[in-house]
Amino acid sequence: NILFIDLHYVDFNMLSSLLFFSGQAVVVYEWRAGKRCKSFQGHSREITKLCCFKGSSLIFSASRDKTVLMWDLGRDTEPVQEFCGHELVVNGVAVSPDGSKLCTGSRDNSMHLWDIELGECLQKHTISRNLVTHVCWVPGSTSIVQTSEDKTIRVWDSRTWQVTNTFPAKQYIQTHCDISSNCYHLLSSSNGFGGQGCEATLWDLRQPGCKVAEYRGHLQTTACCVFVPPRPGYPALVASSAYDSSVKIWDQNTAACLYTLTLDGSGPLVSLAPCDCSSLLCASFNTGLHQLHLDQGAMPSLTEVARF
C-alpha cells in the first residue's frame, strides 16, 4: 500500500499528470490514463513535502533525511541538485515566482533561502520554537508565508530574510497554508481532536493578523485547506480535508459549509490539489486517489481514480 502524504497537480505538457510520494519515492502519475509515468528515488529517509515550478519540468522533494532534492522530469531519474544544510527533518519547500530561489523550512527552527542553480544557501534564519510545518511563496511577490508547530503564522521578506509580520497564535498547531489566486487572502488549517481545533482559518494578507473567517466542522485534524479556483457567477469556495475521512466545501465569505463528502475506510484525507474550477484531487492514506467533482447544478461527488 502507498502511504499518501502530499499531492500536487502538475502540468509539464503531460496530460493530467500529478505528483505524489510513497516512502522515499516521488511518483509522477497520469491519473486520467491510470498509469504511472516515472518514479524518482534518492532520499535515504521518507519524503515529507513536494513542490514544482509551474511551466518547468523541475520537481523538489523535502525529506526526513534533512535534505531537499531537485529532479528534472525530462531527464533521467537521478537528482540534478541537492540542498543540504538543515539539521532536522525538512517540512516546507517552495519555489520563488521567477524560479531562481528555493525556500525551505525545518523542524530545526530555521528557514533557508537557496540559489536553485548553484545549490548554495544564500540566507538562514533561526527562530526559537519555529518548528516549520508548511511553506508558501506568495505569487508575484517577495513574501513567503510559513506555518509552525508553535501555532504561529509568519510572513517573511525574501530580500532581507526577516519576518515582516506574525499572525496571532492559534490554539492548535497550524498544519498547512494556501494563498488565494489574487494574493489577498491566506488559508491555514489546524491540528485538533474531538472537534476542538480542527478548523481552517481565512486571513487577510493585506491587513496582516486580520482574521476574516473560520471554517469549523471537522472532528479531527484538518490536514489540508485550499482555495477552489474561481468560477464566474459563483461564490468563492474553499475546501478542506481531514483525518476524519471527510472533505468539506465552504462558502469563502460566509463560512457556511455547503457540502460534506466522506470516504469510509479511507483513513486520513491528507491532501487536496485543485485541477480546475470544477474538480479537486484528494489523496488518502488507505484508498488511493479520488476526484471531487463540483459540476454546476449537481451535488458534488468523489470518484476513485487510482488505487494502489
From TrEMBL:
Kindly provide the name given to this protein in its UniProt entry.
Answer: Uncharacterized protein
User: Where are the annotated coiled coils located?
Assistant: none
Q: Does the keyword Transcription regulation apply?
A: no
Q: Where are the WD repeats?
A: 40-73, 83-124, 132-166, 215-260
Q: Which InterPro entries match?
A: WD40/YVTN_repeat-like_dom_sf (IPR015943), WD40_PAC1 (IPR020472), WD40_repeat_CS (IPR019775), WD40_repeat_dom_sf (IPR036322), WD40_rpt (IPR001680), WDR31 (IPR040066)
Q: Which PANTHER family match?
A: SPERMATID WD-REPEAT PROTEIN, WD REPEAT-CONTAINING PROTEIN 31
Keywords per UniProt? Repeat, WD repeat
